[in-house]
Design goal:
The protein starts with 18 loop residues before the first helix and ends with a helix. By secondary structure, it is of the alpha+beta class. The chain folds into 2 domains: 85 residues, no CATH class; 56 residues, no CATH class. A hairpin with a 7-residue loop joins strand 1 and strand 2.
Length: 148
């Protein structure tokens, strides 16, 4: 949060912080806020502090609170805009009815060898699938099960 200079009624710029970072995701967990009068010398004066659970509270200076005429050092208020961001999984999309077109490509780089050679990863065997084709079929079968 940035310092607001020379202002008795500061309005701070909005900032973002995750609920997990702020209060561990627990909206009932007390959050302590300290308000200081900033000095370039580094000896900042405490204006007051408060604990809150995401609400509006008076800012109380414990040293001043003993005086009969003292009410508060101000009221701190804030507006809270919560945005819950959900990261969807592949299965969430499928279960939600998302249609996916299935395309697979094989890189026939020369370093993989001649597909007519039994030593090649791309060998086209008359006896069955090569490693690439077997892997593709396994993926196809797994995805097609989700199409029901």
């Amino acid at each position: 949060m940035k310092v607001v200079y020379n202002n008795l009624n500061p309005i701070w710029r909005p900032f973002r912080i995750s609920l997990r970072t702020l209060c561990g995701g627990d909206v009932e967990k007390p959050i302590k806020v300290d308000c200081y009068d900033h000095h370039n010398s580094g000896s900042h004066d405490l204006i007051g502090s408060f604990k809150t659970t995401l609400a509006e509270f008076e800012c109380i200076n414990p040293k001043k609170s003993m005086k009969k005429s003292y009410k508060n050092s101000g009221v701190v208020s804030y507006s809270l805009l919560l945005q819950i961001v959900r990261e969807y999984t592949f299965l969430d999309y499928i279960m939600g009815g998302c249609q996916i077109n299935f395309t697979i490509a094989i890189d026939f780089t020369g370093s993989n060898g001649d597909p007519r050679s039994p030593q090649s990863l791309h060998y086209i065997s008359p006896e069955g699938y090569n490693e690439y084709l077997a892997a593709i079929c396994r993926r196809r079968d797994a995805v097609s099960l989700m199409n029901n």
